[in-house]
Amino acid sequence: MPDLDPVIHAQARLRITAALATLDAGEAITFPRLQHVLGMTAGNLSTHLRKLEDAEYVAVSKTIEGRSPATYIQLTRLGRRRFEDYTASLKNLLGGTP
Q1: Which pLDDT value is given to residue 93?
Q2: What is the pLDDT of residue 3?
Q3: How far is Cα 57 from Cα 8, in angstroms, rounded to an integer?
Q4: For 6-93, CATH number?
Q5: pLDDT in tens, 17-58
Q6: H or E element, residue 33
Q7: Minimal CA–CA distance to 46: which of 55, 57, 35?
Q8: Which residues are CB-contacts of 70 (< 8 A; sequence separation ≥ 6)?
Q9: Confidence of residue 96 (pLDDT cuts 50, 70, 90)
């Protein structure tokens, strides 16, 4: 039986990585936009992003736009690879081809 990445496997983190994987490599999304897309509270999203960031699956960058702070999130190369491995393992587990 294939191992499923425990960092991604938590429902909220799976939703986050799946949403970020829809972006082109190197493309980022703002924190409020990701929060809206996922329907998560800011605290819950922050907690799960921290775990993904600690695993180096996502990159979080903070900037100033005009006079307002902006936070951008993107899937790292490692995160994209781990998400692809995760989905392949899941397909294999469900009886599909890896």
Answers
A1: 86
A2: 80
A3: 9
A4: 1.10.10.10
A5: 999 999 999 999 999 999 999 999 999 999 999 999 999 999
A6: helix 31-38
A7: 35
A8: 30, 31, 62, 63, 64
A9: low
The C-alpha torsion from 95 through 91 and 85 to 33, rounded to 10°, is: -170
Report phi then psi at 59, rounded to 5: -115, 130
Give the list of residues 6+ apart from residue 15 with CB closer than 8 angstroms, or none.
38, 40
| pLDDT confidence of residue 2 | 61
Q: Where are the domains of the chain?
A: 6-93
| Pair of tokens at residue 58 | 């996502």
Amino acid letter for position 51? K
Write the CB contacts of 23 (distance below 8 Å, at least 6 apart in sequence): 29, 74, 75
Q: Detail the DSSP E strand segments found in the chain.
A: 29-30, 58-65, 68-75
Residue 59 identity: A
Rounded to whole angstroms, the Cα distance separating 82 from 72 reads: 20
Which residue reads 């736009």 in tokens? 65
